[in-house]
Design a protein that fits this description.
The chain is of the alpha/beta class and 506 residues long. The chain has two domains: 6-284, Rossmann fold (3-Layer(aba) Sandwich); 288-505, N-(1-d-carboxylethyl)-l-norvaline Dehydrogenase, domain 2, CATH 1.10.1040. It is built from 23 helices and 16 strands. The chain has helices spanning 6-10, 39-43, 45-54, 73-78, 115-122, 155-169, 189-203, 208-217, 237-244, 268-271, 288-312, 317-322, 324-338, 346-360, 369-372, 376-383, 385-395, 400-412, 438-448, 455-466, 469-472, 482-496, 498-505; strands at 19-20, 30-35, 61-65, 83-91, 94-102, 105-109, 129-132, 179-182, 219-220, 222-226, 252-255, 259-263, 281-284, 417-419, 422-427, 430-434. The strands form four sheets. The protein has a six-stranded parallel β-sheet with strand order 6-3-2-7-8-9, with helices on both faces. The protein has a four-stranded mixed β-sheet with strand order 1-5-4-11. The chain starts with 5 loop residues before the first helix and ends with a helix.
Length: 506
């Protein structure tokens, strides 16, 4: 089978009719340097730049830097930066699939063996944007990092070295500062990245003039990204390649929905005209409402509904949404409790919630509940607890289903035994492995140890869990009525089962 590369695009090869293909972009200059070559960036950022290029609105390509020693740049270079992207989901209630060859990436660089090539990019005046997605842990300060290392260990270290080389090459020219757009999933990602770079500059005794140039002439943007990217479709790759008719080692898949919120000056929207090609990119002065909306509705709906659905015996989000009982429960959680707990424009919240429900129903995505349960206690603290607290403040009562979701989460760990770094736990359907921080698993095992199914014992479990400020950041027993309510639900679940308990709620 013929490999996807620029020669294939030039050859007059007859591609499938449902595949969008553009001529190979021979002359476009490199204008973006991107740290990270994984599935998410290729299905999100690189796809967006491709859409602009198709419409002659950006006319630039992306140099991809491999952020760790092992990665995909060799495969990218073998295919001249080309790969096939499949976007799949529900559109107006109908299953829809979009297929396209993406050509916005010019080449990949491995800085571990091509340090000079990496620094040469800093000398290119056309390259004015930095994009990154190096996992949540990527924007972190490493006090042992060093400019002498080629490359420095951390992503901020590599970027500091890049910026310093650019500063020296252009003699500190203000106009040669970069626009830096991190996509890592941490709050205030741009602010945090800037802070780490300035700290490393101090550690490395870099000139004050460089630090001033970083602060005054480089723009660090805070962002929020949202698209489920399912990545390389290993279970169905053979049938996909048969239909495409060519070999592609970098096939990527994701959902149709996308949202990129960028907090930054409006004039940048002219230099990066995403919106002119109809992309769902929002430029704003304050991204806080959008972050609140995403964390509380999208992530919060997952985190609050999954424990109950999993204990009920379901396996995937799609199954949960289609289920007569759980589907109703999820929708009630979102529309009757989460939205009323957020003091923002209700139309904005409802519109987003509608898209979330449609995304949860995506027939192309098998999102397993057990994977969403990973590190549930820390997720609950940031994603669900604020909705419980705020709902009570606004309505002078606890939200029934969200409070139940806390009890269901605690119940997931009942009868669990820590083995190594995991927990072997049980539901009516049988045994499962629960993954969480080891201290959290050991805490829950100890808490449930002497449980005897009585109301007093249920209350003791509730009190013990809720007082754990390491888990929740506060003593939740002080939230009026929460302890008794959680205890009642734990008693119900223990004595009547999860199914009967949740069916009474809806």
């Amino acid at each position: 089978m013929t490999r996807l590369n620029k020669d294939l695009l030039r050859s007059g090869y007859k591609f499938p009719e449902d595949l969008q293909v553009q001529p190979f972009p021979e002359e476009l200059p490199e204008r973006v340097i991107q740290f990270g070559e994984g599935n998410f960036l290729r299905a999100f950022v690189d796809w967006m730049f491709h859409q602009m290029n198709k419409n002659n609105l950006f006319n630039g390509r992306i140099v991809v830097v491999q952020p760790i020693a092992q990665g995909l740049v060799d495969k990218l270079n073998e295919q001249d930066g080309l790969y096939t992207l499949l976007l799949r989901g529900l559109k107006d209630g109908k299953a829809t699939e979009l297929k396209e060859i993406i050509s916005s990436v010019s080449r990949g660089i491995n800085p571990y063996i091509e340090w000079d090539k990496y620094l040469a990019c800093a000398e290119n005046p056309d390259i004015e944007f930095v994009i990154s997605n190096t996992t949540e842990a990527g924007i972190a300060y490493d006090k042992n990092d060093s400019l002498d290392k080629k490359p420095p260990v951390s992503y901020p270290g590599k970027l500091t070295a890049y910026l310093y080389h650019r500063f020296k090459h252009f003699d500190g020219e203000p106009a040669k500062g970069m626009v830096i757009i991190p996509c890592e999933l941490i709050d205030r990602n741009g602010d945090n990245l800037k802070k780490v770079i300035l700290q490393l500059s101090d550690d490395w005794n870099l000139p004050e003039a460089f630090k001033e140039w970083v602060k005054d002439h480089n723009t660090f943007l805070n962002t929020l990204v949202d698209r489920v990217v399912t990545g390389y479709p290993k279970d169905e790759i053979n049938s996909i390649l048969d239909k495409l008719g060519y070999e592609d080692n970098l096939v990527d898949t994701g959902e149709l929905f996308h949202l990129w919120v960028i907090e930054g000056p409006k004039e940048l929207s002219e230099r990066l005209p995403f919106t002119k090609v109809g992309l769902n990119v929002l430029w704003t002065d304050d991204m806080t409402p959008y972050r609140t909306r995403k964390v509380r509705i999208l992530n919060g709906a997952h985190t609050s509904s999954v424990p109950a659905a999993f204990l009920y015996g379901l396996e995937t989000v799609g199954e949960m949404m289609d289920h007569q009982v759980l589907g109703k429960y999820v929708r009630q959680v979102i529309y009757d409790e989460i939205i009323p707990s957020i003091d923002l424009d209700k139309d904005m919240l409802t519109e987003f919630a509608d898209s979330v429900v449609e995304r949860f129903q995506n027939p192309y995505i098998k999102h397993y509940l057990i994977s969403i349960l990973l590190n549930s206690s820390s997720k609950f603290k940031t994603r669900v607890l604020p909705s419980i607290i705020e709902y009570q403040k606004l309505h002078n009562k606890l939200p029934e289903r969200l409070t139940f979701s806390l009890a269901a989460l605690i119940a997931v760990y009942k009868d669990g035994k820590v083995e190594g770094s995991d927990m072997k736990a049980y539901r009516e359907k049988g045994e499962f492995i629960m993954k969480d921080d080891l201290w959290a698993l050991e805490f829950f095992e100890e808490t449930w140890k002497d449980f005897d199914s009585s109301l007093d014992s249920s209350k003791k479990v509730a009190q013990t869990v809720l007082v754990n400020s390491k888990m929740w950041g506060r003593d939740l027993n002080k939230v009026d009525g929460l302890t008794d309510k959680v205890a009642d639900y734990l008693y119900e679940i223990a004595n009547n089962g999860i199914k009967a308990t949740i069916e009474k709620l809806i």
